[in-house]
């Protein structure tokens, strides 16, 4: 299969297509451009496929039935198209875009709609998800139907002119431009084919001897799935092996964006691929009362051999515009390990894929997924993200993480990571995780596509693949490969209270205002925290006078009892007068409590200088020894979190210290720049 991409050719084609989008300015809003342009591209590409199929059938019939008139040949071809399974799709009409444009312009809308309506059901679904019939009406109203159809009537968009790989690049470049025009955030990052190819290589999918299923929960325009199968087809050396790839490898996916879904379905149709692509949100249950279609492959019978995906980065799944309510219906099953923050659903995709792994006894599964840096370390110990990492690592599913170069993607220049997971890790991989630093393995793009300025060459792929396959051997580790035990990423989150020392390095005491509400509950918390005597000095002001009380509260004392006793002593005469006319003990008690409540209180208290801190301690270290070594103060008490936290910090593990430039060299460089600036000013 042809894998070489002519960037100049594709850029020229994309620019020509983009001109048609610019013709919509003033008639359609920027975010609507793709609703006009992408469907007509798909329709024209389908048309090219169908025209080629008809020509091939006609040529075959002429050989098989010499002497038959051309008119009759065409009739036979039409019957084959409509009445057999030989054609991937069909159209009941005799229209093409070129014929429609050649007819009376006043009949263009009528003829075009007839043409659209004539397609078979599998194309109708594509048209429906583009919502194209409504768009046609708006194109007519804004006098844009004729120029758009005329531009694409003869556009060479068939597979003979553009491979599926090349067409994928065109789709993605257009989608990138449409995204920028409409001001959308770059939440969707279309995956370069060389990155997908690297993911597929690392999955080590064998040439099939039996059925192999491949799944992508956010398949977009289908690039991941297509490249996975193309990879196997490329490796097949014999006709039998190629036939096995076509027959035994099945593709499955979900896609939520209607336009992307339609493009994916059309692409699979053109390739005559019997892929099971579903329209819906793979992260939520598929139920009749759901606001949108959900995971139609959620049943326990749907398990897959290989899964790969590049889910949207940083997409919010909570709030009024999200699907949090529906996703939480999986909280006790699929997402039982934890749920990430509602502003980043990346881990929901990975948990969805992990839930679809085949049991090891049935062959197990392998997963490759692209993440940004967030899933590596976001979330403190006990948070959803940390708990998900703990679940993955303690189950020993994480096999390797590959750090990729930046500026690989069309809509973002950030660094990304390929996570490789499996529930059938080889013996030498078990309880270990490989980190591969591939950030320097790239070459510059001859011509950038948006933010995509770098690319991974075949040589780089081979190097990374070699690291993954052979880097487990003892002594192999180098500057780009490191092996860790799964527990190396674990840590204790320990809350510790220590006694701060003064300038003489003696245990310190602090006298300070007490700014919290002077309630029994708050003081009980202070007694529990300090576990020692607390000295109080309280200025009390009544309507008549001001006085100060002082007392020491032990950890066992009841504050309300001591406080009330001190006030009764300080305001003995006032309380006597206040309660003199009252008859019952309860009346007198209420009066005293009201008096105490009405007093204005200014509180200062003296306590040990205790400091409450949190220490993150690597798993395996002796906690008491660590605290003694790191804090070097009297430790009062400490408490470990009920569970371990987990984080993965690849940059830390591959960090190389570079000493700062010496001061004299910096000064030389500064004065050189100063002199250069002076020369420039002289010229001005």
Automatic annotation (TrEMBL):
Gene3D superfamilies: 1.20.1260.30, Vaccinia Virus protein VP39. Residues 167-471 form the DNA methylase adenine-specific domain. It comes from the Bacteria. Keywords: Methyltransferase, Restriction system, S-adenosyl-L-methionine, Transferase. InterPro entries: D12N6_MeTrfase_N (IPR022749), DNA_Adenine_Mtase (IPR051537), DNA_methylase_A-5 (IPR003356), DNA_methylase_N6_adenine_CS (IPR002052), SAM-dependent_MTases_sf (IPR029063), T1MK-like_N_sf (IPR038333). One of its GO terms (biological process) is methylation. It catalyses: a 2'-deoxyadenosine in DNA + S-adenosyl-L-methionine = an N(6)-methyl-2'-deoxyadenosine in DNA + S-adenosyl-L-homocysteine + H(+). Belongs to the N(4)/N(6)-methyltransferase family. This is site-specific DNA-methyltransferase (adenine-specific). It comes from Desulfobacula toluolica (strain DSM 7467 / Tol2).
């Amino acid at each position: 299969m042809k894998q070489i991409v002519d960037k100049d050719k594709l850029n020229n084609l994309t620019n020509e297509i983009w001109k048609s989008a610019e013709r919509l300015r003033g008639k359609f809003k920027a975010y609507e451009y793709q609703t006009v342009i992408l469907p007509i591209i798909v329709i024209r590409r389908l048309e090219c496929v169908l025209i080629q199929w008809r020509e091939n059938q006609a040529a075959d019939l002429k050989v098989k039935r010499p002497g038959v008139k051309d008119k009759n040949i065409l009739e036979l071809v039409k019957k084959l198209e409509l009445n057999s399974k030989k054609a991937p799709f069909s159209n009941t009409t005799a229209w093409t875009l070129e014929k429609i444009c050649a007819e009376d312009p006043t009949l263009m809308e009528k003829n075009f709609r007839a043409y659209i309506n004539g397609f078979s059901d599998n194309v109708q679904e594509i048209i429906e998800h583009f919502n194209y019939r409504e768009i046609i009406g708006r194109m007519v109203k804004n006098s844009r139907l004729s120029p758009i159809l005329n531009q694409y009537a003869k556009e060479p968009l068939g597979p003979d002119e553009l491979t599926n790989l090349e067409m994928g690049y065109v789709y993605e470049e257009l989608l990138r431009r449409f995204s920028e025009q409409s001001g959308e955030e770059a939440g969707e990052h279309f995956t370069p084919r060389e990155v997908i190819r690297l993911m597929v290589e690392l999955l080590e999918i064998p040439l099939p001897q039996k059925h192999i299923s491949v799944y992508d929960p956010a398949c977009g325009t289908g690039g991941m799935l297509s490249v996975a199968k193309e990879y196997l087809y490329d490796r097949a050396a014999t006709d039998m092996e190629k036939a096995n790839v076509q027959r035994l490898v099945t593709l499955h996916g979900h896609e939520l964006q209607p336009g992307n879904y339609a493009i994916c379905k059309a692409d699979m149709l053109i390739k005559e691929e019997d892929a099971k692509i579903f329209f819906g949100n793979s992260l939520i249950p598929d139920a009749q009362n759901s606001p949108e279609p959900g995971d139609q492959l959620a049943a326990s019978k749907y398990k897959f051999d290989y899964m790969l995906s590049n889910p949207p980065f940083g997409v919010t799944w909570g709030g009024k515009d999200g699907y949090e309510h529906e996703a939480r219906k999986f909280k006790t099953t699929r997402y039982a390990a934890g749920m990430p923050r509602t502003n980043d659903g990346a881990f929901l995709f990975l948990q969805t894929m992990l839930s679809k792994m085949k049991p090891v006894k049935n062959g197990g599964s392998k997963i490759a997924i692209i993440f940004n840096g967030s899933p590596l370390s976001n979330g403190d110990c006990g948070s959803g993200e940390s708990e998900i990492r703990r679940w993955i690592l303690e189950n020993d599913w994480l096999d390797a993480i590959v750090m990729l170069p930046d500026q690989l993607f069309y809509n973002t220049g950030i660094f990304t990571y390929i996570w490789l997971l499996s529930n059938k890790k080889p013996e030498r991989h078990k309880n270990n995780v490989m980190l591969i630093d591939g950030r320097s393995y790239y070459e510059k793009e001859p011509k950038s596509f948006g933010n995509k300025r770098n690319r991974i060459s075949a040589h780089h792929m081979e190097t990374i693949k070699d690291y993954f396959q052979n880097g487990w051997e003892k002594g192999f580790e180098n500057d780009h490969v490191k092996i860790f035990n799964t527990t190396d990423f674990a840590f204790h989150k320990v809350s510790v209270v220590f006694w701060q020392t003064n300038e003489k390095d003696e245990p310190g005491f602090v006298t300070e205002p007490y700014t919290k509400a002077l309630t029994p509950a708050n003081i009980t918390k202070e007694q529990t925290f300090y576990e020692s005597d607390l000295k109080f000095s309280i200025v009390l002001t009544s309507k008549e006078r001001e006085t100060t009380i002082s007392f020491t509260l032990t950890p066992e004392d009841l504050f309300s009892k001591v406080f009330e006793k001190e006030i009764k002593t300080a305001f003995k005469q006032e309380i006597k007068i206040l309660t003199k006319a009252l008859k019952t003990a309860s009346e007198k008690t209420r009066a005293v409590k009201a008096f105490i409540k009405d007093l204005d209180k200014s509180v200062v208290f003296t306590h040990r200088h205790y400091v409450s801190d949190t220490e993150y301690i690597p798993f395996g270290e002796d906690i008491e020894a660590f605290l003694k070594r790191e804090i070097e103060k009297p430790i009062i008490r400490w408490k470990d979190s009920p569970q371990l936290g987990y984080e993965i910090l690849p940059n830390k593990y591959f960090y190389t210290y570079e000493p700062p430039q010496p001061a004299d060299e910096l000064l030389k460089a500064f004065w050189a720049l100063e002199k250069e600036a002076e020369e420039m000013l002289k010229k001005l």
